[in-house]
Amino acid sequence: MNTKEALMQIRALFEDMPQVVSPAAPEVTKVEMAEYSLVDGTKVMISALEIGGMVTMEDGTPAPVGEHQLMDGTSIKVDELGSIIEIKSPKEDSILEEPVAPAAPVPPAQDTNAMIQELKNDYMKKKMELDAKIAELESKVKSGFAQVAELVEALSNTPTAEPTQKAANAFQSYVSTNDSKYERLEKYRNAILNK
């Protein structure tokens, strides 16, 4: 097999690679954030004043971990991701206040199903992003190999020629013999003596 045949086989391998179609990017839903003020006057943005709501500072960074009190007296506890993990409403000592009925507990199966669905959605979103990156890398690799194959093919088509002078003869023409050394030394000696 000569180089041209090898190059043609390599090129055929890359031309037969299946094309990966990058999936459409999932739609991103924009969350409306409401502005709240903390007791110290700091402005924060909260997606929903409920457990799981996201709390961010004005510059978009997640709120620091810990408990924060809003101007209305509501206290929220935030985790390291800026997500609300606990809410305490202000305690009022009013006699006229009507007792509030406790919220009906959500059956654990619904919570679990919602969490599983959310995890599936996150997984699918990340999988689609990775598939798109893989497809992009595959196209770059295929393009790179095609360029290398073209370069090697161009180099194989470059004509070759015999050297104009053989290396052994060229080397011997520069090697001097003892006779020529003696002649040069004699020439220098005579030039010094005749001065």
Structure overview:
By secondary structure, the protein is an alpha+beta fold. The chain is built from 4 helices and 6 strands. It starts with a helix and ends with a helix. Mean pLDDT is 76; it is low at 93-98. The strands form 2 sheets. Strands 1-2-3 form a 3-stranded antiparallel beta sheet, with no helix packed on it. It has a domain at 31-88.
Number of helix segments?
A: 4
- Residue runs with pLDDT of under 50 for 5 or more positions: 93-98
Q: What is the CA-CA span between the terminal residues? A: 73 Å
Global structural class:
alpha+beta
Helix content: 40-55%
Descriptors:
195 residues, alpha+beta, 6 strands, 44% helix
Can I get a quick summary?
The chain has 195 residues and is of the alpha+beta class. It is built from 4 helices and 6 strands. The chain has helices at residues 3-15, 108-156, 167-174, 178-193; strands spanning 34-37, 43-46, 55-57, 66-69, 75-78, 84-88.
Write the layout of secondary structure elements.
Elements: H1 3-15, E1 34-37, E2 43-46, E3 55-57, E4 66-69, E5 75-78, E6 84-88, H2 108-156, H3 167-174, H4 178-193
Antiparallel strand pairs: 1-2, 2-3, 4-5, 5-6
